[in-house]
Amino acid sequence: MLCQTLRTAVLLASLVLAVQTFVALGWLRPVEVAGDSMAPSHADGGRLLVRRWGLPRRWDVVVLRSPNDAQQLLVKRVIGLPGEEITLREGRVQIDGQPLGNPPEVAGVYYGAMGHPVWRLGTDEWFVVGDNQPVSIDSRNWEHAPGVPTRLIVGTVAR
Known about the structure:
- Helices cover 15% and strands 31% of the residues.
- It has 1 helix and 11 strands.
- The chain has one helix at 2-25; strands at 28-32, 47-51, 61-65, 73-80, 85-89, 92-95, 98-100, 118-120, 125-129, 148-149, 153-157.
- Strands 1-2-11-3-4-9-10 form a 7-stranded antiparallel beta sheet.
- The chain starts with a helix and ends with a strand.
């Protein structure tokens, strides 16, 4: 029993040390959620750990710099990948004309088009949205363009 407890304590201490090392090296970054655009998945004031390596995949939650204010960090979900055509019709997402099913974590989300139902992304752009559609300011309604350049993506939220 004592041996098992000691083994568990050593494993836990090693895990804590590894996370602290990754944070110190800049590979992981703690971020606090500001606002309700990702509720209920990620509530205002919640804390996230962000991986700062690799590219995001569809449905990943990412932290990015706002295209309108580089000092502001946003938390959004990736639904469109570079080079794709995104269509929002009757609350559903289509990619290059093909319907895209929602994963369980966003099964009830209705994707409103905000007056512009079709977007074409460049080769270095990502289409991101908030899970709480009525309050989210995202790729559907940014002034500059719908696509977020890779350089603005800080990282992917660790699962």
